[in-house]
Every structure is written in structure tokens, then in C-alpha cells.
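Hey all, sorry for the wall of text incoming. These are the two entities for the joint prediction.
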Amino acid sequence: MPELRKDPVVGRWVIISTERSRRPSNFTPETFPSSATFSPFAEGREDMTPPEVYAVRPKGGAANSPGWTVRVVPNKFPALQIEGSIDRRGEGLYDKMNGVGAHEVVIEGSDPQLAFADQSVEQIQQTLIAYRERMLDLQKDKRLRYCLVFKNHGAGAGATLEHSHSQIIATPIIPRQVQEELDGAKRYYELKERSVFTDILDQEMAESNGRRLVSTSERFVALAPFAPRFPFETWILPRAHRSSYHTISDPEEFLDLARILKDTLQRLNTALDSPPYNFVLHTAPLGEDDLPYYHWHLEIMPKLTRVAGFEMGSGFYINPTPPEDAAQYLREIVALT
Amino acid sequence: MPELRKDPVVGRWVIISTERSRRPSNFTPETFPSSATFSPFAEGREDMTPPEVYAVRPKGGAANSPGWTVRVVPNKFPALQIEGSIDRRGEGLYDKMNGVGAHEVVIEGSDPQLAFADQSVEQIQQTLIAYRERMLDLQKDKRLRYCLVFKNHGAGAGATLEHSHSQIIATPIIPRQVQEELDGAKRYYELKERSVFTDILDQEMAESNGRRLVSTSERFVALAPFAPRFPFETWILPRAHRSSYHTISDPEEFLDLARILKDTLQRLNTALDSPPYNFVLHTAPLGEDDLPYYHWHLEIMPKLTRVAGFEMGSGFYINPTPPEDAAQYLREIVALT
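and here's what came out:
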């Protein structure tokens, strides 16, 4: 059973894999096999993954058989384990608990070589709906308090397989950075009686401004945040207030989100020569569906610079590209979608 | 002038380089020239760096001339600028200030190819003393509130030059992660009336334990922390309570620290085939010399795994090597020093 351990000074939780411990010799650079030769996520290889927990089969068909367009399976090498009780306990002054949680893989299409940004908006829409469906299902498990959806694209961003996929990790604690975001947004709300995210959107979209806007759609805004950690970091925020991603139910809203997400990724690909990137969905904790102070959003971070000692030691980032410049570059790219 | 900008939700400060903005085409991978052919830090090339602010010249000699063993110079491409006033101001709901601060490079020896861990303990001692001297000098500048000392070793850890060096960044704000560490330690002290670091040392060194110890010396302890973010993360802590690094004055203490630091780095080199690594000195803010709740220490992080979307989105780390296993591997290595 993996263990969750808490740093006694800063309160940071880490997941310690106690079962598949990596010995020193296991840290040789990982190979990144091309999907041209082999992908365990390909259609027809459904038996190479654990049995699916969700799939879209437009023409019907049995579970774990071909014919799917999006498929969600438990991670074969999970960081957390779904069975078991949380069992909080001490070790002297330290705190730990069992590494209970879900770790799933969203396989975003049956073509092993088609990158996420190159898929059709309808295909991307299906993936965005899959995130919601999994959140709704995981929310039923009362041990789980947060559901983190993220994507590592490219070896430089931590991906170990080329076949387009994202990951879902549901944890029995609210991760530290999420809690800090919730706390910060709540403080602002208590002071102003307005959501900080609504104020950000109002300020960024005011006619006199617009310097950090990348694009807008009917329901979403893509922008470079005022204080980005990374060059070309881009956030997508819904215009309307909504704290939890999984409360979206209108398929049109997912389609609009798919459009602006594809458009943003294509702009980044054109500007930066198809960089590795991560995106992370920021949403309210499971079971807290309507927080007036919080606003779900997606943070996209191209991997262009290395995070080194300074950032790790201080949490203080040096960004060599002002967001106003990044937004201008991205705005001026003629959309390919 | 670089700008310091604050994220309006989480309060995270970032440094935005507004003068040497990197355009999209500037993000091609950086070359890492071998010091065998060229090092701007080599002896005899003192005119290739800004004029030195500190140097050790055992046989005397003029500033910025050969004959030094350790030399500290302003960074030629500083992230912060030493001249100017802080000038806090708003931009609508956002907060920013001028990027005032110091950014210095500690050149840790005149041999361009001798790695830090392979230097003599006396040479390492001189670097450790240089850190202290720079902190004492920077502390006189009342605009500066924190002095961060860190080392990026190897291209994989963010170094752009092979010649052994570390960096000092002094900032007009206390970095977020440092403040969290101070706050966490203070809360523990208020609850227990004891330092959390002293309690950690007591628990780790109790005869019944020792599972996370790597080595001990007269005045220091090297250990794997209970909740490490990274595989083989190793901390060096002084046995005696002291909150600020720069209040060390006994040369013997620096020598003892040099010995355990060299020994730890050599163990990591042997276990992990000379990995890239970062180390970061954690110390109290400038001007706060005697905090009963805080304990300076050094955190060493070999760079073996990639930080990806999950970690960046959550601040929640997955570590595939339990610290008890890492400490055992490192303990069992016969010290080479």
C-alpha cells in the first residue's frame, strides 16, 4: 500500500510508493517508445490495460472491446490504491495515512499518433465530457476529497507514452496548492464580496486593456495571467461563474471549451514549434459544488525553461517573457482550427 | 527594470524580466559548452565577469586579478537589479513592484572542470564562508529581506555552465515557500514550546530509529526527511539550534559542514552515477537573527525524475523511493572522502 506522508514543518503531503520502490539503478533515463511501433493504448489492445471504467462507443459494443473513441482505465502502475481504509496514524511527531485514492488514464482517441491538439473539436469534446463523468463517479466515494485532472504532453513534460492521454488522480486530502487557491479566493471574497476571478475577467476584458487576452469565445476566455510562472503560460476561464467543472451539463459548453482549447494549443504549437506542455484543471473539491468565491479554470504551461534550485527553494519563479508579450504573439497567430 | 508581480489569488510572487524578453524563437535548447574548451569563470578571465564583490586570495593580489580560490561576482544577466527603489504600485486589482535585488554568482574554484563534490574540504569550506560573508554584506541593504543561496549542478538541474558555481539571489520580499516554512515552524513552537527541527533531530537520532540517517558528524546530521518530494532528497541540519546560517563564525564549523556536504554529495554520486542536483540553503530572513522556532539547514535534491503536471497543479509530489530505503543505500556506501 502506498503511503501519504506529511512534512511536519510546511504541511506538504507526498505520496511514497512503498511497493514498487525504485532502486538507484532504476533511475536511468526512461525510454519513450514511438507509438508508430507500439502503443498499449491502441484500439484492439484493450486487454493490455486494466478493465475500463468509462468509454464512449458511438456504435455500441461490449466493454473492453474495440469501437471506442474515448476510454478511461485505471492506471496500470497507480500512485494510489483504490482499495482500503485511510487509517490516519502517527510515527512519533510525524503524520501519515494509507495511500488510498484513484489513479486513472483517459485515452483520448484510438489513433496512437494523433496529438490531442490535432484531434477534431468533437473528439476533444468527448474527452472533456469524460473528465466530468469520472468526477461525478469518483465523487460518490466519500473517502475522496479532490479530483485532479492533468495532461503531460511530450517527454519534456513528463509523458512516458506518445499515445494522447491525460490522467486523473483522486486523493483523500485536498492538495496544498489547491487549498491555497481556495483560501486566497475566499479571503478576497470576504474583503470585497466579489469573486477575484470575476474581477480578473472584468479587468482583463475591459476595452482599455486586452493586452493579456489571447482569444475569447462565446463562453470562455483564454488569457496570459498577470503573474505567470512560466513563459507563455495560458489560462482558459469560463466567463460565467461556476466553481466546479463537473457541474457543466450542456454539451454545447463542452464543445465551446473544446474549440478554445484546441485553438490555444494550436497557437502555442505554431508560436513555439509544438512544445511539450502540461495542463491542469483547477476545480473545487469534490462535494463542494457551489462556492461563490471560486471559479474553475484550466492552466496550460508550455515546458520551455527548466525549474531549478531557485524555484524549488523559494516557490519564486523567474519568467523571461512578460505575459503581455506572450499574449500578443499568440493573438497574432492566424488560428488554424 | 525587471518587475515583481503577485498572483492575486494565491499571493505567489514572480519575477518578470521586462528588459531581456525572450521571444518564441529564443526557446531553442540552450547549449552547454564544455569547460574544457571555454569557461568565462576561469582564472585569467576576470574581465569577462562584472567586477567582483568578494574574493579569497591566499597570496594577496589586486581585485579582479588572478590568484583567487573563491570569487563572487554580480550575475552578468541578473534576474533582479540592485539599483532603484522598490516602488510598490497597483494595476487595477493587481500588485507589482520594481525588481530590485541582488543576483550574484559564487565561482567555487579556479579549475573549470573540477566538480564541487570533488574539491578538497578546505576549498568547499571557503565557498561556505563566502556564502556567509555575502549574506552579512547584503543584510546591510535594508531594502532586502531574504537571501537565497542555491546551486544547480548539471544541465539536467538547470546549470548553463559547467564551471562549478552557485548563486545568491537577495529579494525585497520573503519568498512564499520560505514564509510557509517559517509559519509552520512557528505554529509548532506555539503549540509545543519546542522547535520542530529539534524534535525531528531527536526522533531521527534516537537509538531505536536511525532508519533515515545517512551520516552524522560532530556538529551536523545528514538525513533523508520523513516526507521527501524527490527520490534521495537529503537534508543536512546542524545539531545545535541556530536559525540563521550567517551567524556561524567558527571556521571549524564551516570545515565540519564542508566535510559532511562533500561526503553526502560523494555518496549520491556513487549511488546514482553522478546525477544532476540542486541544493538550497534554508535560513531565516535577513535581519532576523535569532528565531527560537527556526533552524537553518541545507536541502539537497538529486534530479532523477521529472516534475510534471500533477506536481505543478497540486504541490503534491509522488516519490517512488521511500526515504528509509534511500538512506540505507546511502549509508552503505563506503565514504570516499
